[in-house]
Design goal:
single chain; alpha/beta; four-stranded antiparallel sheet; two-stranded parallel ribbon; 14 helices; 8 strands; 54% helix
Length: 298
Protein backbone atom coordinates (compact mmCIF):
# COMPACT_ATOMS: atom_id res chain seq x y z
CA UNK A 1 0.00 0.00 0.00
CA UNK A 2 1.57 3.26 -1.30
CA UNK A 3 5.07 1.73 -1.54
CA UNK A 4 5.67 3.12 -5.04
CA UNK A 5 4.58 6.60 -4.00
CA UNK A 6 6.89 6.54 -0.98
CA UNK A 7 9.76 5.41 -3.18
CA UNK A 8 9.12 8.29 -5.58
CA UNK A 9 8.49 11.03 -3.00
CA UNK A 10 10.80 12.19 -0.22
CA UNK A 11 7.88 14.00 1.44
CA UNK A 12 5.88 10.76 1.58
CA UNK A 13 8.88 8.81 2.93
CA UNK A 14 9.47 11.45 5.59
CA UNK A 15 5.87 11.25 6.76
CA UNK A 16 5.99 7.45 6.98
CA UNK A 17 9.28 7.73 8.92
CA UNK A 18 7.71 10.24 11.31
CA UNK A 19 4.81 7.84 11.89
CA UNK A 20 7.16 4.88 12.47
CA UNK A 21 9.09 6.88 15.05
CA UNK A 22 5.97 8.11 16.83
CA UNK A 23 4.24 4.71 16.95
CA UNK A 24 7.35 2.79 17.96
CA UNK A 25 7.08 0.18 15.20
CA UNK A 26 7.42 0.08 11.42
CA UNK A 27 3.98 0.99 10.15
CA UNK A 28 5.60 1.70 6.79
CA UNK A 29 6.83 -1.89 6.45
CA UNK A 30 3.36 -3.16 7.32
CA UNK A 31 1.82 -0.90 4.67
CA UNK A 32 4.37 -1.78 2.00
CA UNK A 33 4.80 -5.53 2.53
CA UNK A 34 2.04 -6.75 4.88
CA UNK A 35 1.03 -9.28 6.00
CA UNK A 36 -2.44 -8.32 4.79
CA UNK A 37 -4.31 -9.93 7.70
CA UNK A 38 -2.40 -7.81 10.21
CA UNK A 39 -2.75 -4.67 8.12
CA UNK A 40 -6.51 -5.23 7.83
CA UNK A 41 -7.03 -5.49 11.60
CA UNK A 42 -8.85 -2.38 12.82
CA UNK A 43 -6.16 -1.30 15.27
CA UNK A 44 -3.60 -1.30 12.41
CA UNK A 45 -5.74 -0.33 9.43
CA UNK A 46 -6.86 2.97 10.94
CA UNK A 47 -3.40 4.50 11.53
CA UNK A 48 -2.20 2.90 8.28
CA UNK A 49 -4.96 4.50 6.20
CA UNK A 50 -4.44 7.86 7.86
CA UNK A 51 -0.69 7.87 7.31
CA UNK A 52 -0.96 6.53 3.76
CA UNK A 53 -3.46 9.24 2.86
CA UNK A 54 -1.35 11.90 4.55
CA UNK A 55 1.68 10.68 2.63
CA UNK A 56 -0.24 10.90 -0.66
CA UNK A 57 -1.21 14.46 0.23
CA UNK A 58 2.41 15.32 1.08
CA UNK A 59 3.63 13.81 -2.18
CA UNK A 60 0.99 15.74 -4.12
CA UNK A 61 2.02 19.04 -2.55
CA UNK A 62 5.71 18.27 -3.13
CA UNK A 63 5.24 17.31 -6.78
CA UNK A 64 2.81 20.04 -7.78
CA UNK A 65 4.10 22.96 -5.73
CA UNK A 66 2.32 26.12 -6.78
CA UNK A 67 0.13 24.06 -9.10
CA UNK A 68 -1.39 22.10 -6.20
CA UNK A 69 -5.21 22.37 -6.32
CA UNK A 70 -6.50 24.60 -3.53
CA UNK A 71 -9.54 22.98 -1.87
CA UNK A 72 -12.80 24.78 -1.33
CA UNK A 73 -13.96 21.95 0.99
CA UNK A 74 -12.84 18.53 2.15
CA UNK A 75 -14.62 15.41 3.36
CA UNK A 76 -13.56 11.91 4.34
CA UNK A 77 -15.46 8.65 4.74
CA UNK A 78 -15.36 7.43 8.36
CA UNK A 79 -11.67 7.41 9.33
CA UNK A 80 -11.05 9.63 6.31
CA UNK A 81 -12.69 12.51 8.16
CA UNK A 82 -9.51 12.72 10.24
CA UNK A 83 -7.43 13.04 7.07
CA UNK A 84 -9.80 15.73 5.83
CA UNK A 85 -9.38 17.67 9.08
CA UNK A 86 -5.60 17.27 8.91
CA UNK A 87 -5.55 18.46 5.29
CA UNK A 88 -7.57 21.53 6.29
CA UNK A 89 -5.16 22.40 9.12
CA UNK A 90 -7.62 21.66 11.93
CA UNK A 91 -5.29 19.17 13.62
CA UNK A 92 -1.55 18.48 13.56
CA UNK A 93 -0.25 15.25 12.04
CA UNK A 94 1.19 13.89 15.29
CA UNK A 95 -1.98 14.62 17.26
CA UNK A 96 -4.17 13.10 14.56
CA UNK A 97 -2.00 9.97 14.33
CA UNK A 98 -2.15 9.46 18.09
CA UNK A 99 -5.92 9.93 18.00
CA UNK A 100 -6.61 7.55 15.10
CA UNK A 101 -4.31 4.91 16.63
CA UNK A 102 -6.35 5.08 19.84
CA UNK A 103 -9.60 5.10 17.87
CA UNK A 104 -8.53 1.90 16.15
CA UNK A 105 -7.66 0.25 19.46
CA UNK A 106 -10.94 1.36 21.06
CA UNK A 107 -13.03 0.10 18.14
CA UNK A 108 -11.13 -3.18 17.96
CA UNK A 109 -11.82 -3.78 21.66
CA UNK A 110 -15.51 -2.96 21.23
CA UNK A 111 -15.72 -5.29 18.24
CA UNK A 112 -14.16 -8.15 20.16
CA UNK A 113 -16.62 -7.72 23.04
CA UNK A 114 -19.67 -8.79 20.99
CA UNK A 115 -19.75 -11.02 17.87
CA UNK A 116 -20.86 -8.63 15.16
CA UNK A 117 -20.36 -7.52 11.59
CA UNK A 118 -21.50 -5.48 8.62
CA UNK A 119 -23.38 -6.32 5.41
CA UNK A 120 -23.56 -4.27 2.23
CA UNK A 121 -27.13 -4.18 0.89
CA UNK A 122 -27.36 -3.54 -2.84
CA UNK A 123 -30.47 -2.29 -4.60
CA UNK A 124 -32.61 -0.93 -1.76
CA UNK A 125 -33.48 2.60 -0.65
CA UNK A 126 -33.21 3.83 2.93
CA UNK A 127 -36.82 3.02 3.89
CA UNK A 128 -36.53 -0.57 2.68
CA UNK A 129 -33.19 -1.04 4.43
CA UNK A 130 -34.65 0.22 7.69
CA UNK A 131 -37.55 -2.21 7.31
CA UNK A 132 -35.09 -5.03 6.67
CA UNK A 133 -33.11 -4.11 9.78
CA UNK A 134 -36.24 -3.93 11.92
CA UNK A 135 -37.37 -7.37 10.77
CA UNK A 136 -33.99 -9.08 10.93
CA UNK A 137 -32.93 -7.57 14.26
CA UNK A 138 -35.29 -9.73 16.33
CA UNK A 139 -34.35 -7.86 19.49
CA UNK A 140 -30.67 -7.48 18.60
CA UNK A 141 -28.71 -4.48 17.35
CA UNK A 142 -28.98 -4.00 13.57
CA UNK A 143 -28.93 -0.58 11.93
CA UNK A 144 -27.97 1.28 8.75
CA UNK A 145 -24.32 2.31 9.11
CA UNK A 146 -23.08 3.68 5.78
CA UNK A 147 -25.20 5.51 3.20
CA UNK A 148 -22.54 5.23 0.51
CA UNK A 149 -24.40 5.96 -2.72
CA UNK A 150 -27.81 5.33 -4.30
CA UNK A 151 -28.52 1.62 -4.06
CA UNK A 152 -25.67 0.82 -1.68
CA UNK A 153 -26.29 0.96 2.07
CA UNK A 154 -24.22 -0.93 4.62
CA UNK A 155 -25.92 -2.27 7.73
CA UNK A 156 -24.18 -3.03 11.00
CA UNK A 157 -25.05 -5.13 14.03
CA UNK A 158 -24.79 -8.36 15.96
CA UNK A 159 -23.60 -11.40 14.03
CA UNK A 160 -26.88 -13.36 14.16
CA UNK A 161 -28.88 -10.31 13.10
CA UNK A 162 -26.52 -9.73 10.16
CA UNK A 163 -26.97 -13.37 9.15
CA UNK A 164 -30.76 -13.03 9.24
CA UNK A 165 -30.57 -9.85 7.18
CA UNK A 166 -28.59 -11.65 4.49
CA UNK A 167 -31.22 -14.38 4.36
CA UNK A 168 -34.12 -11.90 4.20
CA UNK A 169 -32.59 -9.28 1.89
CA UNK A 170 -33.92 -10.77 -1.34
CA UNK A 171 -37.47 -10.83 0.06
CA UNK A 172 -37.21 -7.06 0.56
CA UNK A 173 -36.07 -6.56 -3.03
CA UNK A 174 -32.29 -6.40 -2.63
CA UNK A 175 -30.22 -7.63 -5.55
CA UNK A 176 -27.36 -8.67 -3.27
CA UNK A 177 -26.35 -8.78 0.40
CA UNK A 178 -22.57 -8.93 0.78
CA UNK A 179 -20.91 -9.62 4.16
CA UNK A 180 -17.95 -7.30 4.72
CA UNK A 181 -14.55 -8.37 6.05
CA UNK A 182 -14.55 -6.14 9.10
CA UNK A 183 -13.83 -6.72 12.77
CA UNK A 184 -17.25 -5.70 14.01
CA UNK A 185 -20.35 -3.52 13.86
CA UNK A 186 -18.87 -0.11 13.19
CA UNK A 187 -21.10 2.97 13.29
CA UNK A 188 -23.63 1.25 15.53
CA UNK A 189 -24.49 1.31 19.24
CA UNK A 190 -22.16 -1.67 19.74
CA UNK A 191 -19.35 0.89 19.38
CA UNK A 192 -20.60 2.90 22.38
CA UNK A 193 -17.66 1.82 24.61
CA UNK A 194 -15.27 3.10 21.93
CA UNK A 195 -17.12 6.42 21.75
CA UNK A 196 -16.80 6.86 25.51
CA UNK A 197 -13.05 6.23 25.39
CA UNK A 198 -12.63 8.50 22.37
CA UNK A 199 -14.41 11.28 24.28
CA UNK A 200 -11.73 11.04 26.96
CA UNK A 201 -8.93 10.92 24.38
CA UNK A 202 -10.23 14.07 22.65
CA UNK A 203 -10.27 16.14 25.84
CA UNK A 204 -6.59 17.08 25.55
CA UNK A 205 -6.38 17.28 21.75
CA UNK A 206 -6.15 20.72 20.16
CA UNK A 207 -8.62 21.18 17.33
CA UNK A 208 -8.43 24.46 15.44
CA UNK A 209 -10.84 26.10 13.05
CA UNK A 210 -10.10 24.50 9.66
CA UNK A 211 -8.76 26.58 6.80
CA UNK A 212 -11.85 25.64 4.77
CA UNK A 213 -15.05 23.75 5.58
CA UNK A 214 -14.77 20.04 6.41
CA UNK A 215 -18.02 18.18 5.84
CA UNK A 216 -18.98 15.87 8.71
CA UNK A 217 -20.08 12.27 8.24
CA UNK A 218 -22.77 12.63 10.88
CA UNK A 219 -24.94 15.30 9.29
CA UNK A 220 -23.33 15.94 5.87
CA UNK A 221 -22.61 19.55 6.81
CA UNK A 222 -19.50 21.42 7.97
CA UNK A 223 -19.07 21.55 11.73
CA UNK A 224 -19.25 25.02 13.27
CA UNK A 225 -15.98 25.39 15.17
CA UNK A 226 -13.52 23.16 17.08
CA UNK A 227 -15.94 22.03 19.81
CA UNK A 228 -18.51 20.98 17.23
CA UNK A 229 -15.83 19.07 15.31
CA UNK A 230 -14.97 17.09 18.45
CA UNK A 231 -18.61 16.30 19.13
CA UNK A 232 -19.12 15.05 15.59
CA UNK A 233 -16.01 12.86 15.75
CA UNK A 234 -17.44 11.25 18.89
CA UNK A 235 -20.93 10.89 17.40
CA UNK A 236 -19.48 9.41 14.22
CA UNK A 237 -18.37 6.24 16.03
CA UNK A 238 -21.97 5.18 16.71
CA UNK A 239 -23.80 7.10 13.94
CA UNK A 240 -24.28 6.25 10.27
CA UNK A 241 -21.87 7.70 7.72
CA UNK A 242 -23.88 9.93 5.39
CA UNK A 243 -21.42 9.88 2.52
CA UNK A 244 -23.95 10.17 -0.29
CA UNK A 245 -25.49 13.25 1.33
CA UNK A 246 -22.02 14.69 1.96
CA UNK A 247 -21.15 14.47 -1.73
CA UNK A 248 -24.53 15.87 -2.71
CA UNK A 249 -23.82 18.82 -0.39
CA UNK A 250 -20.46 19.45 -2.07
CA UNK A 251 -22.14 19.30 -5.47
CA UNK A 252 -24.87 21.70 -4.34
CA UNK A 253 -22.15 24.10 -3.16
CA UNK A 254 -20.72 24.13 -6.68
CA UNK A 255 -18.07 21.43 -6.38
CA UNK A 256 -16.98 20.35 -9.86
CA UNK A 257 -13.39 19.08 -9.40
CA UNK A 258 -12.72 16.22 -6.99
CA UNK A 259 -9.54 14.54 -5.76
CA UNK A 260 -9.43 11.27 -3.84
CA UNK A 261 -6.23 11.33 -1.77
CA UNK A 262 -5.02 7.92 -0.56
CA UNK A 263 -5.05 4.21 -1.38
CA UNK A 264 -7.57 2.75 -3.79
CA UNK A 265 -10.43 4.20 -5.83
CA UNK A 266 -13.44 3.46 -3.63
CA UNK A 267 -14.61 7.06 -3.37
CA UNK A 268 -14.27 7.61 -7.11
CA UNK A 269 -16.49 4.57 -7.64
CA UNK A 270 -19.10 5.88 -5.24
CA UNK A 271 -19.15 9.26 -6.95
CA UNK A 272 -19.93 7.59 -10.28
CA UNK A 273 -23.12 6.30 -8.66
CA UNK A 274 -23.91 9.66 -7.03
CA UNK A 275 -23.26 11.87 -10.07
CA UNK A 276 -21.84 10.14 -13.13
CA UNK A 277 -20.92 13.47 -14.74
CA UNK A 278 -18.31 14.27 -12.08
CA UNK A 279 -14.75 13.11 -12.56
CA UNK A 280 -12.71 12.14 -9.51
CA UNK A 281 -8.91 12.04 -9.75
CA UNK A 282 -7.51 9.33 -7.47
CA UNK A 283 -4.02 10.16 -6.17
CA UNK A 284 -3.11 6.62 -5.15
CA UNK A 285 0.19 5.85 -6.88
CA UNK A 286 3.37 7.40 -8.24
CA UNK A 287 2.04 7.03 -11.79
CA UNK A 288 -1.23 8.79 -10.94
CA UNK A 289 0.64 11.66 -9.32
CA UNK A 290 3.11 11.99 -12.20
CA UNK A 291 0.26 12.15 -14.69
CA UNK A 292 -1.51 14.83 -12.68
CA UNK A 293 1.71 16.83 -12.27
CA UNK A 294 2.23 16.80 -16.02
CA UNK A 295 -1.30 18.01 -16.67
CA UNK A 296 -1.18 20.77 -14.05
CA UNK A 297 2.15 22.10 -15.32
CA UNK A 298 0.83 22.68 -18.85
Amino acid sequence: MMADLAEASRAARDLFAQADDQLGFSLSELCFTGPADRLNATDMSQPAMFVASGAALAAMREALGEHTPQPAMTAGLSLGEYTALYAAGAIDFAAALDLVAKRGQFMQAAAEAVPSGMVSIIGLDEDKVRQLCQTAADGQVLTPANFNCPGQIVISGEADACHRARQLAEEFGASRAIPLKVAGAFHSELMRPAAVRLTEALENVEIRAPGYPVVSNVDARPADGPDAIKQRLIAQVTSPVRWCESMQYLLACGGDEFYEIGPGRVLAGLMRRIDSARRVRSINSADALAKLAGERAQ
